[in-house]
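Worked example 3 (structure in, sequence out).
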């Protein structure tokens, strides 16, 4: 009888430890856990990070000044002399989520990725229009993959009631369905990417270059 109790206790300890490891991974992914130990070490790390950030900012400023962007109107007037119509790369981050820019023209592809998904975590990345309409949702399961990347393109789509190109222009919102209070934003400007104008004249039955969207009723609006 005593051996049975000991074995039961051991199983309980092992199960509790597994739950602890699982919760620790989730906290790490969402960056909720805060560690205030080893303050001297943290100060040193902070100093290194600060130097890296300063170097990164200087590098980005140099890149930004060398990146000469022209408006769509300028491009239409003189295509030969215009090198760049779109806005430069400027990655935006929310925990494990990254999108490649903070500004897009209508008709541009929006590239994004999610990294470091822990096992046991099931969630979704939701994209909302400036009017708060859930435009697209990408579910993920940490038991199936720890990283993924994709792209999509804002478009006119009848079933969502998005039938005017102006509905796509403005500030979009990105969030994890499981963390509705933490949000990432990007802008879709009032310029249309040259060569894509025909796609923004009438409403489409199916969105452009878009995978299947899950049931929006399970998500939380921004």
């Amino acid at each position: 009888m005593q051996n049975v109790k000991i074995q039961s206790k051991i199983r309980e300890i092992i199960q509790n430890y597994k739950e602890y490891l699982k919760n620790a991974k989730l906290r790490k992914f969402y960056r909720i856990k805060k560690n205030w130990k080893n303050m001297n070490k943290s100060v040193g790390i902070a100093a290194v990070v600060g130097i890296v950030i300063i170097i990164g900012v200087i590098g980005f400023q140099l890149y930004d000044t060398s990146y000469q962007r022209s408006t769509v109107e300028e491009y239409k007037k003189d295509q030969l002399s215009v090198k760049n119509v779109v806005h430069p790369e400027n990655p935006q981050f929310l925990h494990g989520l990254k999108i490649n820019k903070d500004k897009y023209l209508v008709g541009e592809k929006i590239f994004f990725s999610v990294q470091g998904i822990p096992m046991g975590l099931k969630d979704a990345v939701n994209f909302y229009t400036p009017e708060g309409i859930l435009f697209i949702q990408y579910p993920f399961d940490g038991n199936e993959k720890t990283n993924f990347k994709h792209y999509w393109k804002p478009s006119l789509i009848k079933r969502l009631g998005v039938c005017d190109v102006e509905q796509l222009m403005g500030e979009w919102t990105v969030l994890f369905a499981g963390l509705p209070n933490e949000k990432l934003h990007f802008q879709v400007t009032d310029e249309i990417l040259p060569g894509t104008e025909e796609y923004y004249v009438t409403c489409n039955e199916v969105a452009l270059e878009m995978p299947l969207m899950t049931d929006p009723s399970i998500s939380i609006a921004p």
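Notes: The beta strands are 92-94, 97-99, 103-106, 110-114, 122-128, 134-141, 148-152, 170-176, 179-192. The CA atoms of residues 125 and 157 lie 20 Å apart.
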